[in-house]
């Protein structure tokens, strides 16, 4: 079973490298117009002074850099399955003022070891920004994020909603365009978050943004668990 998981992880890494081999150079310029809700998610992190923040699916490092500006006293780490994206992320981080506070590493969001990658067991805040819709075993990624969160800490997720309150023609065009990049909005996101939280005695807050264009989930672990 572990061999199958490693094979699937390797195949997904190759796929993501292929999708973003060239797009990574213009990713941040183009995605800011439709990856809505990212800044709202970052504003709500409320990272404690001296805390540790982990991003799953860190891509170009844009969100880690934005979070470091908001909460300069924290430590930041990110993983991504695509070596191509990590190459861009490291370049962006090296050019930024907060370079020493941010470390990124190659890893699978569904199965990773914080201690081996970064030297700590759990983070105060874990977030996933528009990556759930690209991870085949996305429910496992949510469970892994919660497992990597300290007691009293929280997992923050933002991703595409179902656009149920938007014109059908817009929804069809958006879905067709997203499919070209292997992006699938997860209709069951809220239910999956509640299921993962129930197993850990955690609390879930979920809401839609922009007429369900995007969805935000916050899973907060109880202290002492």
Automatic annotation (TrEMBL):
Domain Methyltransferase: 53-153
Domain of life assignment: Bacteria
GO molecular function: methyltransferase activity
Keyword hit for Transferase: yes
Keywords for this protein: Methyltransferase, Transferase
Any one of the GO BP annotations: methylation
Pfam short name (any one): Methyltransf_25
Name of the featured protein: Class I SAM-dependent methyltransferase
Lineage: Bacteria, Pseudomonadati, Pseudomonadota, Alphaproteobacteria, Hyphomicrobiales
């Amino acid at each position: 079973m572990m061999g199958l998981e490693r094979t699937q992880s390797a195949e997904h890494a190759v796929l993501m490298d292929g999708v973003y081999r060239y797009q990574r150079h213009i990713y941040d310029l183009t995605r800011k117009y439709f990856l809505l809700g990212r800044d709202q998610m970052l504003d709500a992190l409320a990272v404690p002074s001296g805390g540790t923040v982990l991003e799953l699916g860190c891509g170009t490092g844009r969100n880690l850099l934005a979070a470091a500006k908001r909460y300069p006293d924290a430590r930041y780490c990110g993983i991504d399955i695509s070596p191509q994206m990590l190459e861009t992320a490291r370049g962006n981080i090296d050019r930024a003022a907060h370079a020493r506070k941010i470390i990124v590493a190659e890893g699978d969001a569904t199965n990773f070891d914080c201690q081996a990658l970064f030297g700590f067991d759990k983070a105060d805040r874990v977030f996933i920004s528009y990556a759930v819709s690209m991870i085949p075993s996305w429910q496992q990624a949510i469970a892994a994020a919660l497992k990597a969160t300290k007691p009293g800490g929280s997992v923050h997720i933002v991703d595409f909603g179902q656009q149920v309150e938007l014109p059908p023609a817009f929804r069809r065009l958006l879905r067709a365009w997203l499919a070209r990049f292997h992006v699938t909005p997860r209709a069951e996101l809220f239910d999956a978050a509640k299921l993962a939280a129930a197993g850990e005695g955690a609390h879930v807050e979920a809401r839609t943004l922009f007429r369900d264009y995007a969805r935000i989930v916050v899973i907060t672990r109880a202290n002492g668990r």
